[in-house]
Amino acid sequence: MTIIKRALTFILTVLAITVIAGSSAFAQKAPEFSNDLMMDNKTYVYLIAEKLEYRSLNGIDPLMWEIQGFVGKDINKFWFKTHGEALTTESEAEMEFQGLYSRAIDPYFDIQGGIRYDLAYEGGANKSRGFAVIGLQGMAPYFFHVDGGMFISEDGDISASLEAEYDLLFTQRLIGQPIFETSIAIQEVPEWGVGSGFNNIGLGFRLRYEFVREFAPYIGFNWERKLGETADMARTGGHVSNLSLLGGVRMWF
């Protein structure tokens, strides 16, 4: 009987160990493979109002905006961009819209291609034009942002633009942002006030305070000067150079 009891005890012990080990292994089993687990397969949505601002400028005091965002994965994205200005003292505005396919070529840089549409109105008169676009965009949050593009209009006119920004972290919340902008055109387009050669240069500085990362009011200044033939066109009815104080808010989602 003693031998039988020992044998039964041994068998029950082995069975208990097997059940416990099996339950533990089942609990620790890795999940079934899915593409959703791959980080580069996740779809992201991003929208940023880089500039929403009011400028004090020669009594016309324009409202300015620069908004962009994307939908896509790490490598391939669809970008939407718009920027422009509307005068607060007159019925006049200019705006630009872009829709771009973007593909990453580096951890921080994307090559982009798509279309651009410009719309302007003054009083009761409207005008518009379309472009094909190829560009390069580099973005490293809290470091730098570079956005450059070459444009071919529906009439075959070729132009290009470049904007570069750099973040200076004075503290974790107080951030300075110097900005450089310029553009160039191969052909003159008088109806849009564009001459051939370098068209303009812009320098600015914005100082923002991030109450939270997604919301930051700012103040600053902006200086712009038209160049070459574009400056000659501006002299007939406008200003070649201007300096403005500004205030606005930067938001992202």
What is the string of SSEs from the N terminus onward? Answer: HEEEEEEEEEEEEHE
Count of alpha and pi helical runs = 2
Note the quaternary state here.
Answer: single chain
State the total count of DSSP E strands.
13
Major sheet: arrangement of strands: 1-2-3-4-5-6-7-8-10-11-12-13
For this structure, the CATH topology of the largest domain is Porin
- Total domains, how many? 2
Pfam families: CopB (PF05275)
Signal peptide: 1-27
Keywords: Signal
Protein name: Copper resistance protein B
Structure description:
- With 253 residues, the protein is mainly beta.
- Helices cover 13% and strands 59% of the residues.
- The protein contains 2 helices and 13 strands.
- It has helices at residues 2-27, 228-235, and strands spanning 44-56, 62-72, 76-87, 92-104, 109-122, 125-140, 144-153, 158-166, 168-169, 174-185, 197-209, 215-226, 241-252.
- A hairpin with a 5-residue loop joins strand 11 (197-209) and strand 12 (215-226).
- The longest helix has 26 residues, at 2-27.
- The chain starts with a helix and ends with a strand.
- The model is unreliable at 14-29 (pLDDT under 50).
